[in-house]
Amino acid sequence: MTKEELKTYLVQIFPSNKVDETFDFPLMFVDKSELLSVAQKLKDSPETQFDFLFCQTAVDRIPNLEVVYHLSSINFKHDMVLKVVLEDRETPEVPSVYSFWKAAELYEDEIFDMFGIRFSNHPNLRRIMLGDEWPGFPLRKDYKDDINIVSL
Amino acid sequence: MENNNNIPIDDLTEEFVVNIGPQHPSTHGVLRLQATLDGETIKDLLPVLGYIHRGIEKMTESLGYKQSIYLTSRMDYLSAHINNQACSLAIEKGMQIEVPERAKAIRIIMAELQRLTSHELWWGSCAMDLGAVTPFFLAFRDRERILDIFEGNTGNRLTMNYITPGGVMFDVLPNFASSIKELLVKVKEHLKEYEELITGNVIFQHRLKGVGILPRELAISMGCTGPVARASGISCDVRKYHPYDGYDKLDFKEIVIDGCDSWARYKVRMEEMKQSIHIIEQLIHNIPEGEFRAKVKGVIKLPVGEYYQRVETARGELGVYIVSDGGNKPYRMKFRAASFSNLGALKPITVGAKIGDLMASMATIDLVIPDIDR
Amino acid sequence: MIGFSDITKWIHDSLSSALSPGWVLASEFVLAGIAVILIVVVLVVVMIYMERKVAGFMQLRLGPHRVGPWGTMQVFADVFKLLLKESFAPNSVDKFLFNLAPILVLAVSFMALAPISWAPGLQLWDMNIGILYITAVSSIGVIGILMAGWSSNNKYSLLGAMRSGAQIVSYELSAGLSIVAVIAMCGSLSVHDIIMSQADGWWIFKGHLPILFAFIVYVIAGTAEVNRAPFDLAEAESELTAGYHTEYSGMQFGMFYLTEYINMVVIAMIGSTVFLGGWMPFHIYGFDAFNGVMDYIPSFVWFFGKIFMIIFFMMWFRWTFPRLRIDQLLKLEWKYLLPLSIVNVVIVAFITVMKWHF
Amino acid sequence: MKSLFQYLKEVFLGFYSLWTGLKLTLYYFTHPRKEIITEQYPENRTTTINIPERFAGEVILPHDENNKHKCTACTLCEMACPNGSIKIISVQEESEDGKKKRVLDKWIYNLGMCTFCGQCIDACPQDAIIMKNSFELSVYNRNDLVKTLNKPGSKLKEKE
What we know:
The complex is a heterotetramer.
Chain A: H1 3-13, E1 19-21, E2 26-30, H2 35-44, E3 52-61, E4 64-72, E5 79-86, E6 93-95, H3 104-115, E7 118-120
Parallel strand pairs in A: 2-5, 6-7
Antiparallel strand pairs in A: 1-2, 3-4, 4-5
Chain B: E1 16-20, E2 32-38, E3 41-48, H1 56-62, H2 65-72, H3 80-95, H4 101-129, H5 134-154, E4 163-164, E5 167-168, H6 176-199, H7 202-208, H8 216-221, H9 226-230, H10 238-241, H11 262-284, E6 305-313, E7 316-324, E8 332-336, H12 338-344, H13 346-350, H14 355-365, H15 369-373
Antiparallel strand pairs in B: 1-2, 2-3, 4-5, 6-7, 7-8
Chain D: H1 2-30, H2 41-44, E1 58-60, E2 68-69, H3 76-80, E3 86-94, E4 100-110, H4 119-123, E5 130-132, E6 146-148, E7 155-156
Parallel strand pairs in D: 2-7
Antiparallel strand pairs in D: 1-5, 3-4, 4-6
């Protein structure tokens, strides 16, 4: 499906969710409570077959945190973006999508390390790069480090 | 030992944990693998990262777009040109810059030469991980010649920072085409030597065949891309499916092998080298004349929005995800590194194998550690 | 022409005239020991230089060429560096075994040199079970390696030592069996007798295909016994960093390094003695004129030529082949080499009984 | 029988493959000077060494014979530098006709922090700075890496 087709398809199938678009891909906002069911549908539906999670990251849009899933289909070669907006900055938590895409294991480790977003049901959530002693979550916008961050 | 509990003797063996890395000859960098061993057999594997984490994604938030490009060459330093290209393409996409044809041709030639150097180095180090030292030097011979071309045209050998938004930094030298033609003749000859020395070798084949089997479904689920995925029968070449910089006008084959083991990954890369030569040969005879760089404003500002650009590096798909708030600095820049996803496949394919197989799998997955850590 | 037996006789006579018989024996022991150690150390120096040049040329490099003319002093510079380095022992090692291991390994490899016949009349000890003695003694070396690996208290070392143990114990068998093939034909275990039996042609030519096969098996098993690539699993640097000598430094590491080369010499010496006639020149039965010409070439040239040929083969293998995996290594021995060697020995026995060999 | 034949063929092919590898290394062993590409560095530094014109060695501020450079102290290079290895110190100077003008006082370049990315040269509107292909840049003291590129008493070159 092309971008436009995919967008109309998403609007049809998930009428309650907000569908938008980024520069390249259709974009759909999902509530974290229904993330798993939406992911299940997207992965298993024969029209979409989003079986490839090629990028998972987070963006700190103050005051919210967003978890961004870039999905792709190996058969159809179409892509889309899923977003989960988290209002809770203190103890953000999202269900892990490890059960659908195993690639999420490392991606979610990295997001937890950099943004402090916890993933429930993750097989081994750890601070994969910085280590447990590191104070704060560096990729958040309110992270301050006057010594090490050189700004132009 | 007294066997009071009627446990079979086999179950009384003691597992022990070996830290392979961060300083280890075959991790090619500072990767640490916590391997739980039962004798020679690997029971569990846990990659521990972060030894070369420089926070490139955070640094881009305080640097401008142009300055961010030079950081990308430090990620996958064996695909520096391609990384720069990815970042430039994302910025061009946001600013709607039309790249001149000449620049596109130069970019593709450089990118394919870069892929060639990367695969040459991989070939050498793969053989070295399996215990043969001579191939490493044979591979470096051609790589050295290609790096000389890079050095002459771009000024640097490893982290070139040559491809910029709008085109390339400087025009290529007048002898660019002729020197590459000369080089390709030699590289083709030497590829035959590689086949003689290593590919046909019966020991080498036994070390790779049937080792590190990554089934297609697992590869998809693990998010593997590049030669690793293509060796598992997944057709995923970004150059074919999301062509950029005029790859769609070129004739080349996507190498997909359904072998799923280390040997298939080896074959894919060997064939890809030939395809890279084929691509360069199509372009080198008639590089279009004209501008090498479009006019770009001094301070780059991307319109508000989210941009995702992917390219095919030597290791797989590199994605650059830019979130822009309209300012002169990226709000968030995420690099989807190919090695990071491919690393995930290392554990499922090595558990149950021998230590030697771990090295073989790691060599054919071709990890670049700064790309993993960023 | 003065033979070596004249020189040894002269030394013996002049010592006897000055000392009592007991002291003569003692001083002869010391002299012979020093002589052998000196020769071997010179050989090792030449071999290290050769190895580096061979590796360099095969890898499109020049090899060492800075220290001294054509880099000949490089080895001495390296040894000097190793001697000056601190022999550092980590805190948690078993100090006694840790320090004993390199000495044991080195001593054992020197012991194996005793029955070697260097030239006509130049042999330390012509015992009647010379070959058996060498094979017996050279397998003690594995105890030193196991000792080094265990006492280092390092997991890499332990794995390397265990691999080495499994490997050497396995390959001793087929190396031994391939020597047995020749022993069966010549009917003696004494090194001197084996060499003299090849006066009318080397065993590799006289013994038909079975001995040629035994020679190939011997070279493979010998390479494996000295832990060299493609069988260098014990120190496989891409898997176990440096294997059993990971924790050693300075001259203690130097001793392991020296041992590797002395073992190579020993393997090459046995190979050349048993299959290629030792110091015996190239003779063809019946061609007396040709044999006479061959006799003009000094015997020690023949001996060292053969040794270095085998050593070159080992180096050539090392710089060409990838390493085997541990299970493949053991499979090669137990499933292919050992059964084939046993069949080979049976065939040889049959040939010997039927007196079909020359 | 067929399987035995197959087995023997495999063994033979295996040995043959080993032999092709051995042949290649033997060829290079016997042709030692054919393709050696290692540089004999300290010996060839005055003879055969080839440093390309564009090699990014260090940033320099060229002066002409009258001790004049082209830098207008616009600080674009300072802003373009990703590492902060450039510091431009300028002073306000009054020319003869009474106009106030910004003039370069010190062009400070920290070679130790430079990554040779060439952004400063790309950013310079006057083409005042260039990359020089020098390569023996090591010094004993880290402070020596911080260089002032404009020569004492140098002036801005007037535009023709």
